[in-house]
Amino acid sequence: xxxxxxxxxxxxxxxxxxxxxxxxxxxxxxxxxxxxxxxxxxxxxxxxxxxxxxxxxxxxxxxxxxxxxxxxxxxxxxxxxxxxxxxxxxxxxxxxxxxxxxxxxxxxxxxxxxxxxxxxxxxxxxxxxxxxxxxxxxxxxxxxxxxxxxxxxxxxxxxxxxxxxxxxxxxxxxxxxxxxxxxxxxxxxxxxxxxxxxxxxxxxxxxxxxxxxxxxxxxxxxxxxxxxxxxxxxxxxxxxxxxxxxxxxxxxxxxxx
Length: 257
Fold this sequence. Notes:
Helix content: 25-40%
Distance between the termini: 70 Å
Number of helices: 4
Largest sheet: 8 strands, antiparallel
Number of domains: 1
Shape: globular
Strand content: 35-45%
Radius of gyration: 23 Å
Low-confidence stretches: 1-31
Order of helices and strands: HHEEEEEEHEEEEEEEHEE
Mean pLDDT: 87
Oligomer: single chain
């Protein structure tokens, strides 16, 4: 009888250990089973979530002042700086783009309009990531998960539809999203303007401002022809060259009541 209970106790211990192992495996599998849309939604929630929908953000970047006002799908992006002709204010809303000098709107040709609009939008776009990554015009796909500096990452490739993705719809964007806390720790992109190329960015100085996560980036390039999707390998094998730092100063966030 004693031997019977001993065997039962051993069996129970074995069952508990086995159940624990199964749980660990299944938990790991659950991470792998997340769809790309689920990964993006969790990332947006981690960085700001619903606060993105109604907010006003201001910051300084390279001697320019930027402002983004977002309210229930409507937005106004502004870039202000002192130019040789006076105080320049670029304004891009849902409806149009305009440039004002000393509060007077000036006429722009198509080339200048695209240049100024891109300069205004691109800075705010990167500052507010991952806001807008769930837009319908964004094509998303999960790539093979990778490990960087001992942490595991979802690797997400994104492109934009030609009809609604803007002038740079051919660009490719890649995001490395931490599997443990769904933060964007690295990103990369390819571009075609000015001869084309790629960039890889490493996040640092992460901080929370009124519930919105902001972070600065070390901005890397590479001299050889290299796809944006594989820049994590180039980063870990010391093939990248530090080009600049992307630093946001004086960040302020106001949320709608």
